[in-house]
């Protein structure tokens, strides 16, 4: 009997003849849809929780928390998510929750899981620090390529859109809501946290992670810990981390700082002992990190990020020798 598919045909179909039985018309795959579930924090404030995973084709890159605030002038968003489709779903949700158009969209930093949903919004409504906009310009195309590889078809049609409004630190009154921008750095060279004076909620962006290991591709660990110390001094009713659950405590601030101190010490000690990267990656993590999602994964990534920094700082340059 002649086989239904040659090996080449099977591979082109994703390695399985089951692809032939897809209910979608040929050439028209069912588009991915983000199912956003808002959690109400208080009157007029909601958060959609990101998945406590790495970016992949299951979650479509939707791993970051995104906030929606109501105001008399319109909806205020904090971050736009990983793709055009996410941004469109977010805009629809914000309009449904508030019954109003979008008044302002803040971006906390330039990482792709927080800003590739920008396409759904008027660029004049998008606001970020100058450092974040500069980072988007510098890394945006590379981020786009890596997101397409990691998240696949979720990213279809997604392109980089830059904010037109620059956040400079002065309090911003939007309708009946006043937001105080807090310009910091550490997770990236330019991080924006926002304090809502009406509710006392602190939106910390990726300066704070809770029960999910922090990412460090553009981190300055010491600056980051200084920013966390400043955040912990703010008397907030709740803290919304960039990743992880919302809590009315500083547990996320303390946990993030402890994680940064732990990995910085481990990686620095491994470097001083002369371990190479492959040896440093295999070091055991302390027991307290067992409850932290992606602890091993992010530790290994941090070794790759931070080892070159130790080398640059502590190894002599041959071309500078007399």
Automatic annotation (TrEMBL):
One of its GO terms (biological process) is antibiotic catabolic process. NCBIfam families: SoxH_rel_PQQ_1 (TIGR04558). InterPro entries: Metallo-B-lactamas, NDM-1-like, RibonucZ/Hydroxyglut_hydro, SoxH-rel_PQQ_1. PANTHER family: ACYL-COENZYME A THIOESTERASE MBLAC2, METALLO-BETA-LACTAMASE DOMAIN-CONTAINING. Signal peptide: none annotated. CDD domains: metallo-hydrolase-like_MBL-fold (cd16282). Residues 63-243 form the Metallo-beta-lactamase domain. This is Beta-lactamase domain protein. Transmembrane segments: none annotated. Belongs to the metallo-beta-lactamase superfamily. Class-B beta-lactamase family. It holds the Pfam family Lactamase_B.
């Amino acid at each position: 009997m002649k086989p239904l598919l040659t090996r080449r045909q099977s591979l082109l179909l994703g390695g399985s003849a089951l692809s032939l039985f897809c209910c979608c018309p040929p050439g028209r795959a069912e588009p991915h849809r983000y199912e956003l579930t808002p959690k109400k924090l208080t009157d007029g404030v909601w958060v959609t929780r990101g998945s406590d995973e790495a970016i992949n084709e299951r979650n479509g890159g939707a791993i970051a928390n995104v906030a929606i605030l109501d105001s008399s002038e319109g909806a205020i968003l904090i971050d736009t998510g990983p793709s055009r489709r996410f941004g469109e779903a977010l805009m629809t949700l914000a309009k449904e929750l508030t019954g109003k158009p979008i008044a302002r969209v803040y971006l906390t930093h330039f990482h792709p899981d927080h800003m590739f949903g920008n396409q759904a919004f008027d660029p004049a409504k998008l606001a970020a620090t100058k450092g974040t906009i500069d980072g988007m310009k510098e890394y945006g195309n590379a981020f786009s390529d890596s997101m397409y590889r990691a998240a696949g078809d979720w990213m279809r049609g997604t392109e980089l859109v830059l904010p037109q409004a620059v956040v400079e630190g002065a309090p911003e009154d939007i309708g009946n809501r006043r937001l105080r921008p807090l310009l910091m750095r550490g997770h990236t060279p330019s991080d924006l946290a926002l304090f809502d004076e009406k509710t006392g909620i602190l939106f910390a962006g990726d300066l704070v992670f809770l029960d999910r290991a922090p990412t460090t591709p553009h981190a300055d660990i010491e600056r980051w810990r200084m920013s966390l110390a400043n955040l912990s001094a703010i008397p907030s009713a709740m803290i919304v981390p960039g990743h992880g659950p919302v809590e009315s405590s500083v547990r996320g601030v303390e946990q993030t700082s402890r994680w940064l101190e732990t990995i910085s010490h481990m990686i620095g000690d491994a470097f001083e002992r002369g371990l190479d990267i492959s040896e440093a990656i295999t070091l055991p993590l302390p027991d307290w990190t067992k409850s932290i999602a992606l602890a091993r994964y992010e530790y290994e990534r941090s070794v790759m990020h931070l080892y070159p920094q130790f080398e640059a700082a502590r190894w002599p340059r041959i071309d500078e020798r007399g």
